[in-house]
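Worked example 4.2. Below are the chains of a multi-component assembly; read each line carefully before continuing.
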Amino acid sequence: MKMITAIIQPHRLEEVKKALYDADVNLITVSEVLGHGRQKGVDEYYRGSKESGNLLRKIRLDIAVNENFVEPTIKAIIKGAKTGKIGDGKIFVVDLPQVIRIRTEERGEKAIG
Amino acid sequence: MDMINSGDTAWVLVSSALVLLMTPGLAFFYGGMVRRKNVLSILMQCFIAICVLSLQWVLFGYSLAFGPGNPFIGGLGWLGLNGVGLEPNPDYAATIPHQAFMIFQGMFAIITPALIIGAFAERMKFAAYLLFIVLWATLVYDPICHMVWAVGGWVRGMGALDFAGGTVVHINAGIAALVAALVIGKRYGYDNKPTPLHNLPFTVLGAALLWFGWFGFNAGSALGAGALATNAFVTTNTAAAAAGLSWAIIEWLKSGKPTMFGVATGVVAGLVAVTPAAGFVTAMGALVIGLTVSIVCFFAVSFLKPKLGYDDSLDAFGVHGIGGIWGALMTGVFATTTVNSAGANGLIYGNPALVFIQLKAVAITVVYSAVMTFIILKVIDMIVGVRAGYEDEMMGLDLADHHERAYTILE
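Applying the procedure described above to all two chains together yields the following structure tokens:
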């Protein structure tokens, strides 16, 4: 099992969700986060004083999948989020030792889907 | 010499302040509807319209709109308020200072271009917007205002009734909105369904401020504190209430639940529709106008817009254009001289001809506004480009055009 975490542009969320549903990946957690990579954020001005390097709004997706869904999930996120410009985001894939569904107390691969 | 009446003057000055408040009201009405990355751009567009158009009006706008000229546009005789003094001008209002009439009309000149914002929200470049409101106020609003309201105006001479600006303000802005939506194109990713409202309570607050301010707009248009103002006040409130309720009922029947957004939209549609009628119809006439306008506007925003595929983002055309046309035609049906001897009888009082006169005034406004708005936007597009860049639109106009944002996530 793997935990796939993706940081994407907020305006690509709808596209990414659509691509994930098309790939039969239906269980996702979405949160709003702040950050910046190479973009360094955007300058803001309040009553004349500059605040540089402010953080940009991003969307974070957390998706737990079984091994056979890892590549389809990655491909779907790329399909939805890629514009080719700086700021498209990143995908992190990490091993996931255990998953438990609270309602049934099922564990492991059964509990993911 | 004409005497200044203190009651009339007080009412018109208060009404001017009420109408001014409608533009910030509109800012919140529209601001709540956009995505949160664009809310400041909407508030900014409304506020800067007050700043820019207040100056345009006293410098030359008032002269072009109401100054002596030809049937189509006023002359430059009243440039910089030259000759527009504190004595009454009996051509327009015999009992209040000329400048009171001028500043009351100025508030209409401010809100009309601001209404169009709803059509191109979230994607117009700020510099282009500034050029647009100045050119549109000067080349579209001022001439239409002159034709319909000024002494010797072309449309006024036809006998068309427009009490408080159904044609001049709402149809004019509504048609310009449709043209603007078509010229500037859809927002990226627009899929013929509304983008999520970022703050519905703002929209409701805005609708409430509009409702409040509209008493100045309509009852103030009596230009005096008396019977006619009272009639306009009562018809305005009745139509707004009827339209808000009927929108809720339509939603209840169509989609199962009445919505807050629907009632707020219905109220504004009712206010738009009663605007030309307020001083010519009875409260019962206004009630029917209010009940029916929601049906027409609901159809426009939920069937016509997705069907035709234009992105009138906040329904400036669907509510102000369609509601304004409905109101102008219904004025031709329900107007009665028992309310206002300076008006005319409409269809149900035995004068079907008034409907055709109203239709003619609507058609003139539609054609003039559409053609001129198209030309103005094309010219601006050649000079500075009308549309914000793709990345600016994605990031949001608040950060892209103004370097500030409305909400923080972290402290």
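Take a moment to check your reading of the output against the notes. Chain A has one domain: 2-37+55-112. The mean pLDDT of chain A is 90.
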